[in-house]
Amino acid sequence: MDSVEEAKKRIQARIENHNDRYMRHYGLSPYDSTQYDLVVDTEKHNPAEVAALVIAAFAQWRVS
Fold it and tell me: For each successive 10 residues of the chain (64 residues), what is the average pLDDT?
């Protein structure tokens, strides 16, 4: 069984790999929330609330 520290290292390596791949292919970091028009924290909202937030943001985007 892996230790907590080993698991943290594997997770960090996976995040870095993911970030590097996006930078190579798309020239951006998927972890930089400033480049997104909408960021919804799904831990704070249930599915119906998430859907309502997305629909409201889309409606606002259409009129702007």
Answer: 88 96 95 91 96 97 93
Q: Cβ neighbours of residue 54 under 8 Å, at least 6 residues apart?
A: 38, 40
One-letter amino acid identity for 41?
A: D
Which residue, among 62, 1, 4, has the nearest Cα to 37 in the 3D structure? Answer: 62
Q: Are 41 and 28 in contact (CB under 8 A)?
A: no
C-alpha–C-alpha distance, residues 45 and 50, integer Å? 6
What is the residue extent of each domain of the chain?
1-31, 35-64
- Which position has the token pair 């698991």? 7
Q: Does an H or E element contain 61, and which?
A: helix 47-63
